[in-house]
Write a structure and sequence with these properties.
- The structure holds 2 protein chains of 2 kinds.
- Chain A is mainly beta.
- Chain A has a domain of 67 residues: Alpha-Beta Plaits (2-Layer Sandwich).
- Chain A contains 2 helices and 4 strands.
- In chain A, a hairpin with a 2-residue loop joins strand 2 and strand 3.
- Chain B folds into 2 domains: 247 residues, 3-Layer(aba) Sandwich (Rossmann fold), CATH 3.40.50.970; 135 residues, Rossmann fold, CATH 3.40.50.
- Chain B has 13 helices and 15 strands.
- In chain B, the strands form 3 sheets. In chain B, strands 3-2-4-5-7-6-12 form a 7-stranded mixed β-sheet, with helices on both faces. A 6-stranded mixed β-sheet of chain B has the order 9-11-10-13-14-15, sandwiched between helices.
- In chain B, strand 2, helix 2 and strand 3 form a beta-alpha-beta unit.
- Chain B is globular, with a radius of gyration of 21 Å.
- Chain B starts with a strand and ends in a 7-residue tail after the last strand.
- Classes of the chains: A mainly beta, B alpha/beta.
- Chains A and B meet through loops of A and helix 9 of B.
Chain lengths: 106, 398
């Protein structure tokens, strides 16, 4: 079910579903948590062997894969934990400070 | 109409029997004295195929209530039982069950809390769970423990309530003494409790929902608490309606406050749980000697029956409260504070005094109750100043 929360700002105790149940599953996608990050992952496409270990270990499902290949990171939900960088066997993923100019990191 | 059978059984046995008749989908439980024989007996019913319940043996009460919460959110009818340290270990889950509006029914064998270690009756454990948002019944004897368990299911699952319910019985005194109790036939109980219709079951894949969401950072936490307050207020009416319906089936009257001798009583004792019987026994003797004494028993502790209690005590000249739990630093025990609050708006406010009694199973002798009625007579006559708090029967210096 699609939950209409467009007016939630003016809801009273009569409008919220009892028990704080959300009648729409999979809603965590709508909750953007990328802002919690202080470091972001950066991937060197030339070094990457496409072993997909990062995709397996990412606790936030933020490694985007298409046709069995890593394409990019979901920076709306990546919290910058750095696990992908730690497990990468060829050091293709680095953690870089948020806000730096990415192309110059290399 | 149902057929009735009289059992000679312990309070715990009849609670297990009531639970079997309610046929919960899930029970997750951990043994603890003096509750153990409830879940032990229920486990035997499961093993013998007399009830088809998913029985989850867990490693602690913390896990027991957690499993109950998960099962209830999934859409199951859920029951469990605990006591004392076990109830204390469940403490955070008690709030979660109520906040998630899960109609879990739990029996509690009222027992003292450590330290020092003690396994006997008092109401310290249940008073520790006072503000967790559970509807709470007190039983005087095995019969009430049975009746309360059946009514609890209906109250918990009522759409206007949807709150967990605790049914309590006094440890050892009620849980382990052989008592007589009339039980209904299985079919009548089944018809009375009905089929549970969960509101938002997690296992309904057609209508997928999320339980246990976050409501902080300016979120509506406050509004959800107001919903709980309203649900608890709704329970007042539902408890009475369900009680009225049940009393037609059982033939036994039900009220949230039960008075004895209150029509013309000059003095009264307010009490909860098994001691109510002892107090009535003493009151009966005093009545035969011409003393106008009465007894008020509180059967539903949450929501607290303020209006009913004030009505029952109208016109009385002095009131004593028997508290089987401490609230250190408060003016008296937990029941005393409620009773005084209930009487604050009374037109003719009378002196109200508190007696802490029976902690850790300390013996409640009839002479002690006679002493309380004696004190009340003196207060009512104006010949003694009311002492707010007395430790009734505690050893003192000679």
């Amino acid at each position: 079910m699609k939950w209409d929360i467009s007016q939630i700002g003016s809801w009273t105790y009569k409008d919220f579903p009892p028990g704080a149940v959300i009648p729409e599953a999979g809603n965590s996608v709508a909750y953007v948590t990328g802002g919690w990050r202080s470091e972001r992952p950066w991937r060197d496409d030339e070094k990457c062997t496409q072993c997909l270990l990062c995709w397996i270990v990412c606790p936030d499902s933020s490694i985007k894969v298409a046709d069995e290949k890593v394409t990019t990171f979901d920076l709306d939900h990546c919290k910058g934990c750095g696990i992908c960088s730690q497990v990468c066997p060829v050091d293709a993923i680095q953690m870089v400070p948020e806000g730096c100019d990415l192309p110059e990191v290399k | 109409m149902p057929t009735h059978k009289t059992l000679a059984a312990t309070g715990n046995q009849v609670v297990a029997e009531a639970m079997r008749q309610c046929a919960p989908d899930v029970m997750a439980a951990y043994p603890i004295t003096p509750q153990t024989t409830i879940v032990e007996e229920f486990a035997a019913f499961v093993a013998k195929g007399r009830v088809h319940t998913e029985y989850v043996t867990v490693e602690s009460e913390h896990s027991a209530m957690s499993a109950c919460i998960g099962a209830s959110a999934a859409g199951a009818r859920v029951m469990t039982a605990t006591s004392s340290q076990g109830l204390a270990l469940m403490w955070e889950e008690l709030h979660i069950a109520a906040g998630m509006r899960l109609p879990i029914v739990m029996a509690n064998a009222n027992r003292a809390l450590s330290a020092p270690i003690n396994i006997h009756c008092d109401h310290s454990d249940i008073m520790g769970a006072r503000d967790t948002g559970w509807v709470t019944y007190f039983a005087e004897n095995a019969q009430e423990a049975y009746d309360n368990t059946l009514m609890a299911v209906r109250v918990a699952e009522h759409p206007e309530v949807m709150l967990p319910v605790m049914t309590t019985l006094d440890g050892f005194i009620t849980t382990h003494s052989i008592d007589r109790a009339s039980v209904m036939d299985d079919e009548s109980v089944k018809a009375f409790v009905g089929e549970y219709q969960p509101r938002n079951p997690l296992l309904d894949m057609e209508h997928a929902v999320m339980h246990g969401s976050f409501a902080g950072l300016g979120g509506p936490y406050f509004e959800f608490k107001k919903q709980q307050r309203i649900a608890m207020e709704n329970a007042r009416t539902v408890i009475k309606d369900v009680g009225a319906e049940y009393s037609i089936l059982s033939g036994r009257p039900f009220d949230v406050v039960e008075g004895w001798g209150m029509e013309d009583a000059d003095v009264a004792i307010v009490v909860m749980g098994s001691t109510a019987g002892n107090v009535r026994h003493v009151a009966r003797g005093l009545r035969e000697q011409g003393a106008k004494v009465g007894t008020v028993k509180i059967r539903v502790w949450r929501p607290f029956p303020y209006a009913e209690l004030a009505r029952a005590l109208k016109g009385v000249k002095a009131v004593a409260v028997l508290d089987r739990a401490e609230s250190f630093g408060a003016e008296g025990g937990p029941l005393f504070c409620e009773v005084r609050s209930a009487l604050y708006d009374a037109v003719d406010r009378m002196p109200v005094v508190d007696y802490i009694y029976g902690l850790g199973g300390s013996d409640v002798k009839l002479e002690l109750i006679e002493r309380v009625y004696g004190d009340l007579a003196d207060i009512a006559a104006g010949s003694a100043a009311p002492a707010t708090l007395t430790y009734l029967g505690a050893r003192e210096e000679a």
